[in-house]
Amino acid sequence: MAIRQLSPETVNRIAAGEVVERPASVVKELVENAIDAGATQVEIVIAAGGLSLIRVTDDGSGMTPDDLLLAVERHATSKLDEEDLFDIRCLGFRGEALPSIGSIARLEIRSRPADANQGAAIVVTRGAKAPVGPAAVNRGTVVEVRDLFSATPARLKFLKSERAEAMAVTDIVRRLAMAHPDIGFTLQTGEKKPAIFARGDRSSAAWLERIGTIMGREFMDDALEVSGAGSGATAPMRVFGFAGLPTLHRQDSTQQFLFVNGRPVRDKLLIGAVRAAYGDLIPRGRSPLLSLFLDVAPSDVDVNVHPAKAEVRFRDAGRVRALMVRALSEALATAGHRASAQGGVLTVESFATGVLPNAGMPPPPSYSSGGASYQWQPPSAPSGFSERAQTPFAVLDAPSADARTLAEPVAAGETVDKPLGAVRAQVHENYIVAQTRDGLVIVDQHAAHERLVYEKLKASLASGGVARQGLLIPAIIELDDDDADSLVARSDELAELGLVIESFGGGAVAVREVPALLGETDVEGLVKDLAAELRSDGTARALKDRLDSVASRMACHGSVRSGRRLTVEEMNALLRQMEATPYSGQCNHGRPTYVALKLSDIERLFGRR
User: Fold this and answer.
1) What is the pLDDT of residue 107?
2) Half-sphere exposure of 248 (CA within 13 A, CB side)
3) Residues ≥6 apart with Cβ < 8 Å to 411
4) Distance (Å, rounded) from C-alpha 531 to C-alpha 552?
5) Neighbour count for residue 392 (Cβ, 10 Å)
């Protein structure tokens, strides 16, 4: 077949296949044009998921009749200065969207600049352009797209349901609204109530309010402000935004919003930086909630690597990743012992929907508005009952195993104003109940102490090594030959963690020293778990690359176990250490270490409010 040049209509439809994947793609292009035009209010209306109607109205700068003629021509744009493709300072710049849309649908544009007495309009129907004529329109631009894909009906077979397409449009508008809190947005998708994003400013409070409107009150309650700056390849760069506490996470990443120079992106580099920053703070396979904005020099990022501009490429990816990880890590460290507020909310809801057992339980202590402490004493046990059958509450002054959280006793009156309050009881020999000034806190003693030991191990590693404690009699651990050989091969690296092992014949190792922080621990269980850890990850990676994971495993074995009875002093000391330790709001596996209940919520459960 001879080579021939395609017709302009066919060329436009090919371009439309790259630019217009679905109705949401059209909405994205049109709303980005409105933002670039300096709009302060943008209204989006769609019908039938955007297939029958898409209308975008803005109060931006508007276009003259001559501008309208050029706007529907290919490769015509007002957004490139001297054709520099590496200095993109706007959202849309290709100059292909409007002619591509007009080639597969009916496109009508009405526009009026601020200094014009009347507006103008142009209509493009499946690639056929009508002359520009006068139109009655307010300042700004109105773009209507009807019968999308009517010129390419085969594309309709690949679309989802109208509801799914409407949800995709909603997601696009939310992302753009999140990046521009100083612009008001209204979205009508055919539902009874439109989504309205009120115009604000670009302050942190207004930004968080806009983000909270989209991500929900749950995120606002648990959001940490993120801010950081660094040097880019050619100019300074900065990152700012909000990230959720580590205890606030989801199975998918739909609540992760990332932006580069105001442009919503789904970039692998940035997603990897987020994972690295959260690291061991969230469970494996879960995703944190966040909204982060990266500002870099236009010359340091290429936004032209993807037709939909969903991915970008950085000139110095290493610096960008380092800035993201550092800023996120610093924000997470400032959270200290703070845990998600949703834990308490869900706990109260579970009580509210269930039956509150009260038979056989001690009467609730009195509470005065003056802030007096509870004065509750555990009931005496009937004779003949075993220790475990006495009461669900552990007697506070009973003998206890060493919790390795030694501290001087502190009077309850001095600790009730502390963030985690003063100890009142130990429930089921696992949960510490503490009273705060405005509620109570329930702490999982094993999870909390596990994080404390883990952080101490990491600090010791960072300072040059973990203190060791020699065993009076070496522990001989029987293993599979492969597991034993794997551990012995890594003995030098394990020694950095304070675990000294050596070969003890075929299929066995001798443990001579353990990390001092672990105290009395199950050495056999620890060694077998470490062997399983190495086996599951293979031997290609150096153990030094996984020290945090190994330290986490050790901390689990060396922490206060469930079922261990603690004294009041030990429990109060545990709470004080939690308050002073970063990331203590979640254990090494990403689960919360405590739940805080507000007194007002508890009173509502009993109808006192």
Assistant:
1) 95
2) 27
3) none
4) 14
5) 15
Using CA atoms in the order 53, 59, 64, 66, what is the torsion angle rounded to 10 degrees? -40
Per-domain residue ranges for the chain?
A: 8-197, 204-334, 337-355+391-609
Within 13 Å of residue 325, how many CA atoms lie on the same side as its CB?
Answer: 13
Q: How far is Cα 24 from Cα 171, in angstroms, rounded to an integer?
A: 8
Which of 143, 138, 137, 141 has its CA nearest to residue 123? 143
What CATH architecture does domain 8-197 belong to? 2-Layer Sandwich (3.30)
Q: What DSSP line would sit under 435-483, residue for residue? A: EETTEEEEEEHHHHHHHHHHHHHHHHHHTT---EEEEEEEEEEE--HHH
Give one DSSP letter per residue of 207-255, joined into a string: HHHHHHHHH-HHHHHTEEEEEEEEE-SSSEEEEEEEEE-TT-EESSSTT
Secondary structure letter of residue 517 according to DSSP: G
Q: What is the pLDDT of residues 542-589, one digit of tens each?
A: 444 445 556 666 666 655 666 678 888 889 888 998 888 888 888 877
pLDDT of residue 52: 94
As a whole number of angstroms, the distance between CA 570 and CA 574 comes to 6
Taken in order 386, 387, 388, 393, the sign of the CA dihedral is positive
Which among 553, 497, 558 is positioned nearest to 528, based on CA atoms? 553
Q: Are 160 and 143 in contact (CB under 8 A)?
A: no
Mean pLDDT of the chain: 80
What is the H or E stretch that residue 502 is in?
Answer: strand 500-503
Facing residues of 466 across strands?
Answer: none
Token pair of 102 as six digits: 């007009």
Rounded to two decimals, the pTM is 0.70
pLDDT per residue as tens digits for the range 101-119: 998 899 999 999 989 999 9
Can you identify the CATH homologous superfamily of domain 337-355+391-609? MutL, C-terminal domain, regulatory subdomain (3.30.1370.100)
d(CA 56, CA 46): 9
Q: Which two tokens stand for residue 109?
A: 């544009």
